[in-house]
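Here is an idea for our session: we take a single protein and study its fold together. Once you have written the record down, we can walk along the chain together.
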Amino acid sequence: MKVIIVENYEEASQEAAKIFINQVKEKPNSILGLATGSTPVRMYELLREDHEKNHTSYKDVKSYNLDEYFGLDASHPQSYHYFMYKNLFDHININPENIHIPNGMTDDVDAECERYDELIKEAGGVDIQVLGIGNNAHIGFNEPTINFEKGTHLVQLEDSTIEANSRFFDNIEDVPKKAITMGHIIA
């Protein structure tokens, strides 16, 4: 593992964007694992700027998002589906068929989780993954008590995660209490 130490958020975003851009240039059919939240926003801005300026192509890239709130429709402004289109997908030339985000409105969570894991396995696994660590040390929506031996799964969000995410909603009661998140995937 290579550790890159930077001075601030801007430098971190620039380094992360550089890594992703190089990945896509070196392997145009890369499998990208993407995340949402405040941390990757600037990186996504830099990817958009590079695409516009340097024409880095995403047409053969496949993306698999880390997670999605359970019970939020894709059109909801706080869904991660909405977030990804607003912050990245609407601004690059990725094929919509190559965009994968867990279905937070599924009627069969177990089948959705199995389907998502199978899609990732069929793609050959993720080449590079964006991860963030939440205020209580959750990764994706895997709360600190989650067993990482699971694949994609439904999680009950901790009160601290709900409270931290309430800043994005009108009030805390609107924050979903569950989410679908990747766990350990073996390709």
The chain is about 35% helix and 10% strand. The mean pLDDT is 92. Residues 109 and 143 are 18 Å apart (CA to CA). The radius of gyration is 16 Å.
